[in-house]
Amino acid sequence: MLRIGIDVGGTFTDVTALDTADGRFHIHKLPSTTDDQSVAVAEGVRAILQRTGAAPGDVGYLGHGTTVATNTVLESDGARTALVTTAGLRDVLEIGRQQRPDLYDLDADKAPALVDRSLVHTVTERMTAQGTVRTPLSGRDADAVVERIRAADPEAVAVCFLHSYRNDRHEREIADRLRAALPDVYVCASADIAPVFREFERFSTAAVNAYVGPRINRYMSRLADRIEATGVPVPPKVIGSSGGMMSLESVARYPVTTLLSGPSAGVVAASHVAGQAGFGNLITFDMGGTSTDVCLVRDGQAVASTQRRINGRPVRTPSLDIHTVGAGGGSIAHVDSGGALEVGPASAGSQPGPAAYGRGGDRPTVTDANVLRGRLNPRHILGGALAVDYEAAARAVDGVAKAMATGREVAARGIGRIAAVNMAGAVRKVSVEAGEDPRAYVLVAFGGAGPLHAVEVAREVGMRTVVVPPNPGTLCALGLLVTDIRAEFPRAVLEEADEHDPGKLDEALREAHESARGWLAAEAPPGAETRITGEARMRYARQNFELSVPLPRQAIDTARFGPGAVAEMVAAFHEQHTKSYGFAHADARVQIVEIQLTAAALVDKPELPSIAAGSDPREALVDRRQVDFDETGPLDTPVYERAGLRAGTRLPGPAIVEQLDTTTVITPDATALVDAYGNLVIEVEQR
Amino acid sequence: MRNQTHTPDPITVQVIGASLVTIAEEMGAVLRRASYSTNIKERSDCSTALFDAQGKLVAQAENMPIHMGSMTGLIDALLASELTVRPGDVFLTNDPYRGGGTHLPDLTMVKPVFVDGELVGYSANIAHHSDIGGRVPGSNAGDSDSLFQEGLRIPLVRFATADGIEQAPLAFVELNSRLPHERRGDMLAQLASVEVGERQLCEVHRRHGTPTVRAATAHLLDHSAKRLAAALREVPDGTYHFSDLMDPPETGAEDEGGAAGAEGTRIAVAVTVSGDRVALDFAGTGPQAAVGINVVRPALEATVYYALKAVLDPGIPPNGGFFDAVGITAPMGSIVNPREPAPVTARTDTCQRVADVVLGALAAALPDRVPAAGHSTVTYVTFSGEHEDGFFVYPEVVAGGGGARTTKDGLDAVQVHITNSSNLPIEALEQEYPLLVDTYELIPDSGGAGTHRGGLGVRRDVRVLGDGAEFSAHADRQTTRPWGLSGGHDGSPGRFVVNPGRDGERQLPGGRISGVRLRQDDVLRVESPGSGGFGAPADRDPELVREDLRNGRITERAAHDLYGLGRASEPGRQ
């Protein structure tokens, strides 16, 4: 059987296939088709079939990572979306949390609401915070709002009523009527998309979902058609923001959950690769041309978040807690009016790109500094596919050097150091905000630029180990092959732990359990091992910030909270609070805000191929050149070819390792060891 | 690089600077996440900072500009005090006349940082506590007539030592607050935050060496001063005057010097720019008020720093180097330099007006850069009463219009100038309090008309569900209006109305008020001001007028009367 993963990025579509018969992996890369990503996806399937000689019928699994939802929001290219909401509250999306976007920049603008104010329609109805009906929804009002929506002629509608996380009867009724009356319009209800409290965040999530819904649905149906046309008998599955695979039906209903599709595949893959190398606690460091994604993985499990934003708009569906900073190889350096060197936030992006790429860029970027410092090959990169314009890089950096009244070398080193310290800040942030000490973690570097800076970032943060996987540029596609099929089922509870209504708590758990079971029945492949896990989000009474603790196994298994279960959760909550903040309020009232079950159908995790053993790095030595390091200045440095390295080889710093999709810098105070799977495991000396 | 020279290279300076900012941000993350009360946790009414050994602010993560530099006074007070400072000590104060922030609910905590027995700096934070005792629940009513009515005054005291928390100050605060449990949780969160800052700062010193960090800090301060100087060189030399009024005193309150006139207190400033220097003189500003709208020195400074940074260079790192380069004088006994124990808790409304006049003065120098007046009040409302688990206090700040910019409309429904607190979600407040929000929406036509329209104010109707509640507030711009610029119209004022559209509807007499009794099912309507417009309305792009009309941001009538839409002479019509 052939298992295929296809990840679509901005420039390339990456295909990774695993032949389960012999355990071999096959990799293929082709240009993305930006107008319709599914064209390249289908081409990629055909190409990999050709390469492996497999028949379409041999394909038993097809995983896909897509950026369609993200691009729709970033390009403001979504559906004409209407909102139906509770009378009196038409401006929840406009007002948001009433904060201005920048404290001091008077020209900064808020992200405009995705729903034009003229397309907001209110209806008389009201639920209380307890979920009881305060103002009933009349049939006449319901009919009237459906007619108003019909007249407004939107492509999508989000139905968002106050307290629907507690009682969604009104919301469902309007959504059902809209679907019946307007079958061509994409309709979603906030409590279905994100059944959690806090109206702005829930409404915003539903609005984003509606806004991307029609385009995602068109894309998915084209994708399914094109895959079918290749003869592959299985429909594709898509990786969601929380690092679980979803069916096309789930994607159609919850498109907002694919906003982090690609990045989450990278995190899953990094966890898998690092796990096999023996590391369970890691921080992923995915640095590309324009941005860097970092995520904390604890005991092999990526930390989840429900607080994400896209383009300034909150999205409260479960997702991996991937923190993105606008710093990458294309980040531009400049000298400010006080004479200080800054790197970013402006970026040369992929067009025109760094000056060294010779595509017309003339601003000094991080990549240009790396070229001048000898870290990047000064003649060509991407295995020779891209010629490097060293002189252009030098001219660009000279501009900065002049403004600093210093030399080119000092300026280039400064750009590298400041870029590293900026990214170190992001790594610290994901660990500190998760209540973790980064020094107990390893840094897993991938993306085109991650391995170039990882050692210095690790040293800045105090981390001792960096892992660079064998194929850092196609890690996301690998992730699609090792990701479980998974979905989350949250339920709002808002009960006091001490005096909770056991009926209410059990009801929420039973509902979540039924949903999870139903989903597994529909989506788990026959014979797959399935698993349901659960957590509760809890807080001290009157706090408005929750911590997650696991639900007791007994409660998950029986779909009932047995005696002592809540007490166990409360104890776990105090413990988690102590871990995160250093103290607990032992005598304070504790609330259970939400419970969430996660249903998963496990996929077989392939053993990654091991490489041949050997200890002599000279076989892989391809060059020597002067490379500049922060502490020592330029040193004569050996350059190795990654493909030539053998398991067990030690590479003492300074050293450079080049490969098609990235370059790894090993500083003089670090030592790399090639492990059995070809990972570079770099030990960083900490002072 | 521990053994390197003590004059670090410029990149090392920045690496150290970035580390210090990261630490301040981490302290803020810990404070918010560990705090107990909604005010800090959800509304982020707190800030964190690091100081050098001389008490100069080096790095700050402020969520609200009113906190910019406002912890500096505490370090000065500590340096001047008789208290001995030992490793492990943590100090606390809230007294606005003795270095403790800008009003009593802001508790400031600081931990001196030692490396190998040497004092190298301070880790500090400030957080707004939801009740610190005093006459009125929430400790934030605008109509107290003395600081003593506003709550517990905490002198500079030792809060913890290397051996742990000192129980006495904690017990004092708890006993004096209506919400002792919250106070305890919030103060422990503040402690956790300064400890994180201390640990991380020690780490920076350990890595780079104290002489290097010290030298780098001096460079960082100098860099901010240089950025300010560079920005000032773009401002034409001259002295620029501007003044504006506070709302008149109401509820019978009188100014200190005699009976109140019909006019509110004047805020006047002369901003003198000369080369790369700037000085502000508040001469001509009215006397200190009998109610709590007085501005102590740290609040005045923070406001001035905010206004200069926003107009001149938003990227100036806020540190002592910037602050030291700004000259500020204010007449003693004026509303911007009151005599102890003048009440101060509602100082933010005056601060907003101070920001307005500094911006207004700079508009004359930089007419292409300065926006019209924002809603420029802090519409701070408090509902309190009894419910099943005891006493409740629900504080809320309602946003309004942001001033129209010189090239585009103002922002609707935002916090402006010295604050940027978020609202409490309706679903959260209805969980916690016996209140119901009937309405939360933009007010059409509230933004001043202009080529670029002023931002819209907000209407929030709160219904009382329980046995009754008490309403207190401080707000301004209910009489005076946010001004337009260059022909733009003024924004509409705010107001408080009980039971709008029902029998017994009444508008409250003004924005500074307490003790308004509300019965079950009464509705209290809060309307915040819109902002001023920029440029003549007749010059507005008719397409934007139509869009505003379609979106209900303006009414038909405004479109017709103010913008000429539908008239024969409608702009753009042949």
Description:
The complex is a heterodimer of chains A (687) and B (574). With 687 residues, chain A is α+β, with helices and mostly antiparallel strands. Chain A has five domains: 2-72 and 217-258, 2-Layer Sandwich (Nucleotidyltransferase, domain 5); 76-211, Rossmann fold (3-Layer(aba) Sandwich), CATH 3.40.50; 265-483 and 667-687, Nucleotidyltransferase, domain 5 (2-Layer Sandwich), CATH 3.30.420; 485-601, 2-Layer Sandwich (Dna Ligase, domain 1); 617-666, no CATH class. The model of chain A has no long low-confidence stretch (mean pLDDT 92). Among the domains of chain B are: 10-226, no CATH class; 371-540, no CATH class. Chain B is 28% helix and 22% strand. Chain B contains twelve helices and 20 strands. Chain B has helices at 10-34, 38-41, 72-80, 167-176, 180-208, 210-232, 297-312, 320-324, 347-365, 426-432, 542-550, 556-561; strands spanning 46-52, 57-62, 90-93, 106-115, 118-128, 157-161, 164-165, 238-245, 266-274, 277-281, 326-329, 379-387, 390-398, 435-442, 458-464, 469-474, 495-498, 506-507, 513-518, 523-527. A seven-stranded antiparallel beta sheet of chain B has the order 2-1-5-4-3-6-7, sandwiched between helices. In chain B, α1 (10-34) packs antiparallel against α5, α1 crosses α6 and α4 packs across α5 (180-208). The longest helix of chain B has 29 residues, at 180-208. Residues 251-260 of chain B have low confidence and may be disordered.
Strand and helix layout:
The complex is a heterodimer of chains A (687) and B (574).
Chain A: E1 2-8, E2 12-19, E3 24-31, H1 37-52, E4 59-65, H2 68-74, E5 81-86, H3 92-95, E6 120-123, E7 126-127, E8 133-135, H4 139-152, E9 156-160, H5 169-181, E10 186-189, H6 190-193, H7 199-230, E11 237-239, E12 245-246, H8 248-253, H9 261-276, E13 282-287, E14 292-298, E15 301-302, E16 304-305, E17 308-310, E18 313-315, E19 319-320, E20 323-325, E21 331-335, E22 341-347, H10 366-372, E23 380-381, E24 386-387, H11 390-404, H12 408-432, E25 442-446, H13 450-461, E26 465-468, H14 475-479, E27 485-496, H15 502-523, E28 530-540, E29 547-550, H16 553-558, H17 565-581, E30 590-601, E31 621-629, E32 633-641, E33 650-652, E34 655-659, E35 662-666, E36 670-674, E37 680-684
Parallel strand pairs in A: 1-4, 4-11, 5-6, 5-9, 9-10, 13-25, 25-26, 32-34
Antiparallel strand pairs in A: 1-2, 2-3, 7-8, 11-12, 13-14, 14-15, 14-20, 16-19, 17-18, 21-22, 23-24, 26-37, 27-30, 28-29, 28-30, 31-32, 33-36, 34-35, 36-37
Helix pairs in contact in A: 1-7, 2-7, 4-5, 10-11, 10-12, 11-12, 12-13
Chain B: H1 10-34, H2 38-41, E1 46-52, E2 57-62, H3 72-80, E3 90-93, E4 106-115, E5 118-128, E6 157-161, E7 164-165, H4 167-176, H5 180-208, H6 210-232, E8 238-245, E9 266-274, E10 277-281, H7 297-312, H8 320-324, E11 326-329, H9 347-365, E12 379-387, E13 390-398, H10 426-432, E14 435-442, E15 458-464, E16 469-474, E17 495-498, E18 506-507, E19 513-518, E20 523-527, H11 542-550, H12 556-561
Parallel strand pairs in B: 10-11
Antiparallel strand pairs in B: 1-2, 1-5, 3-4, 3-6, 4-5, 6-7, 8-9, 9-10, 12-13, 12-16, 14-15, 15-20, 16-19, 17-18, 17-20
